[in-house]
Amino acid sequence: MTLEANRQGAPGATRPGAPGSEQARRAPHVLLGVTGCIAAYKAAEVVRGLQKAGCEVRVAMTRAAERFIGPVTFEALTGQPVLRDLFDDPVSPIPHIERAEWADLVAVVPCTASVMAKAAAGIADDALTSTLLAAQGPVLLAPAMNVHMWKNPATQANVRTLRSRGVEVVTPDSGRLACGDVGEGKLPPVERLVEAIAAAARRAAWPQPLAGRRVVVTAGPTHEAVDPVRYLANASSGKMGVALARAARDLGAAVTLVLGPVALDAPFGVAVEPVTSAAEMAERTLAAAAGADLVVCAAAVADYTPAAPADHKLKKAAEHLDAIPVVETRDILAAVSALPGERVVVGFAAETDDLLGHARAKLASKGCDLVVANDVSRPGIGFGSDENAVTLITADGERAVPTAPKDDIARAVIDAACDLMTSAPNRSEA
Length: 430
Prior knowledge:
Pfam families: DFP (PF04127), Flavoprotein (PF02441). The chain has 430 residues and is an alpha/beta fold.
């Protein structure tokens, strides 16, 4: 069940967006290490991507890296001097310690086999490896090298050693390498690296109110089969739900994303349960929700599904389709709210008219704790858009969140849910 019964009339109950509900979050500090590899040029793109993701970035380079890309490039991008040497740094007499203490996260992109071996052995013979040894926060390495170097037993032993110490080693991709060989060793796409680094940096820099909590998010549309090649669906892109999964992940939660058919990459660090139909989404969501502390039902689930889908492609000439008999699908939000146990349940009301009236009615009829109301008919914030504007509604009050990128809206929703979870038991400690 939801927590509403426990909160009604309780002293200290919070309203959506009440003072203290959103914790101040500064820009995460990322020290990006660059080593001597042909993929070093991609580090400049990583810097820009991290800056767009809200991170403050500084750079440290090995001397070998300077053979592939100059420090002036990184100084122009970051506005900060590049750490290149232990003994001639313009910023600090002990630059490796100063940078290590500044950084919330040290990420090395690309990381050569040599630097990875030094990190595993604790060797600190230049500015970058000395900073790695001094780092107190998390470390992420993105190796890039020849396939035979990657598969060498020494390299694999170093990977196991580093991971056993809590270092995040991003497994390289397979493909055609710069030397012409084909196999593992290729640096993953910049977008994937940026998401992995930004997520790790946020977890290190921001308060983690969802640490130890389990969160389930549903996202995207469902496809209800008419025959093997046709289906009933809606225009949901899944962007809002994916942003919610990222927001919960960044605050420390173990997140399961039940994701309908969308053209989106799975968020880094989130367990994804891909589904197609409303029936599949209901089954996976209810199974995951049973052990969750927070469930956010953001998917645009079809209300109806064909009663008798054909097992073959219907031919227009011979099997003219005058009507499609349908049956109602299961109400996932209401079913999750009715589950035994305590959890916060958040629903979405995507409306085209009487937004607040329909949303308030949904809050009352579904038994959930919070309804996020959004007008999908408004230009710029409807299905498929990159921005949204919502109103957060609970039994205690409501607050409008003005138009903003969906990542910002997602954080406002998860913050409001965190406020409601203050009285919820931590299931991992139960």
